[in-house]
Design brief:
This protein has one domain: LmbE-like (Rossmann fold, 3-Layer(aba) Sandwich). Helices cover 37% and strands 16% of the residues. Strands 1-7-8-6-5-2-3-4 form an eight-stranded mixed β-sheet, with helices on both faces. Strand 3, helix 2 and strand 4 form a beta-alpha-beta unit. The radius of gyration is 17 Å and the shape is globular. The model has no long low-confidence stretch (mean pLDDT 96). The structure holds zinc ion. Zinc ion binds next to loops. The site of zinc ion (ZN) has 5 residues, from loops.
């Protein structure tokens, strides 16, 4: 039986950087793990590519952007994340290209993380629904940029900016993957993860069909827990760099 369980993510590291497309991307599964890690003294920063300004049908991007940025900053604070940076990409139209890889390599060299956390690049979520283009392209960009960050001959303009290569990224963790390989014990931290998602108040209120953060995250954590031998867990597909 134990051979079928997800492996536990090693915790012999100090710095992680989450890079995601939208406010709420970290809160729909990964934030409980972040709460655990920051409680254990690890440093975790968040980089948001967009402000999620295209995420609320009834609010224009000009109205929604500042609201969602504020909600994300509050969410991050709940799980012990002190640094939240927004890169100003346009919500919904992130493309995989060299400019994206350069921007990501710049962030990785500046921050020097050992772990990077993002969402799955797979076409579909577990259970079948279509994943979003922003997530898919961003994650491919992150995986490639984690290598670019280590090579001084790729994007030499970053050297001119004073950013030396960073070879320390060990793995990229993909939340929401249908091919999860690893898990984190979040038994004592699920409540923080739920509080973090609940900070997206206006966004959650505007989701169709009455979204319940408690039910959503508890179900997910129970399922991952069954796959990993914990009461509650967060699961990830782990890609070694
Ligand atoms: Zn998203």
């Amino acid at each position: 039986m134990t051979s079928n369980l997800l492996e536990t993510i090693p915790e012999d590291w100090n710095r992680a950087l989450a890079i995601v497309a939208h406010p709420d991307d970290m809160e729909t599964g990964a934030a409980s793990a972040v709460a655990r890690w920051t409680a254990h003294g690890k440093e975790v920063g968040y980089v948001l590519m967009t402000r999620g300004e295209a995420g609320i049908d009834g609010l224009s991007p000009e109205e929604a952007g500042p609201i969602r940025e504020e909600e994300e900053r509050n969410s991050a604070r709940v799980v012990g994340v002190k640094r939240v940076d927004f890169l100003g990409y346009t919500d919904g139209v992130i493309e995989y290209n060299l400019g994206l890889r350069r921007d990501l390599a710049r962030q990785i060299r500046a921050d020097r993380p050992e772990l990077i956390i993002t969402l799955s690049h797979h076409l579909t979520w577990p259970g079948g629904p279509l994943n979003m283009a922003d997530h898919r392209w961003l994650t491919l960009g992150i995986l490639d940029a984690a290598r670019d960050a280590a090579n001084r001959w790729i994007f030499p303009e970053l050297i001119e900016e004073g950013l030396e290569p960073w070879t320390g990224v060990r793995m990229v963790l993909l939340s929401g993957s249908p091919a999860a390989t690893h898990a984190v014990d979040t038994t004592d931290f699920l409540s923080k993860g739920i509080s973090s998602l609940q900070e997206h108040k206006i966004y959650n209120e505007n989701l169709a069909g009455g979204f319940d953060p408690v039910q959503f995250l508890t179900d997910m954590a129970e399922k991952a827990g069954k796959q990993s031998g914990f009461r509650y867990a967060a699961s990830f597909e782990v890609i070694s760099i």
